[in-house]
């Protein structure tokens, strides 16, 4: 089981509290995790990735094991700790200000 932590606005949209656990079809990549997430919560389609090109939305970041995975290939394997369920895959809303 993969654990996913969503930012508050996406938890509200998906009507979930806390972490989401997902069954993900291998290979365990950002793409497969997001495919499983959007499959389980169709309301999230287009909120994390663009509908057309499937690229990450600009104000969202992906983290796992204290590493920023946002600029990694969506088909690169996620860390083993995420695959084993020890660590969550984090989707974080960017903070901007001035």
Topology of helices and strands:
Elements (H helix, E strand, L loop, with lengths): L1 E4 L2 H7 L5 E3 L7 H11 L19 E5 L2 E2 L11 H4 L5 E5 L5
Note down, in words, how this protein is organized.
Strands 2-1-5-3-4 form a 5-stranded mixed sheet. A hairpin with a 2-residue loop joins strand 3 (60-64) and strand 4. With 98 residues, the chain is α+β, with helices and mostly antiparallel strands. Helices cover 22% and strands 19% of the residues. The model has no long low-confidence stretch (mean pLDDT 94).
Task: Supply database-style keywords.
alpha+beta; five-stranded mixed beta sheet; 5 strands
Strand content: 15-25%
Mean pLDDT: 94
Structural class: alpha+beta
Low-confidence stretches: none
Total helical segments:
3
* Oligomerization status of the protein chains: single chain
Q: Mind summarizing the main beta sheet?
A: 5 strands, mixed
Helix content: 10-25%
Alpha-carbon Rg, integer: 13 Å
What is shown here, in short?
The chain is an alpha+beta fold and 98 residues long. 22% of the residues lie in helices and 19% in strands. The chain is built from 3 helices and 5 strands, in the order βαβαββαβ.
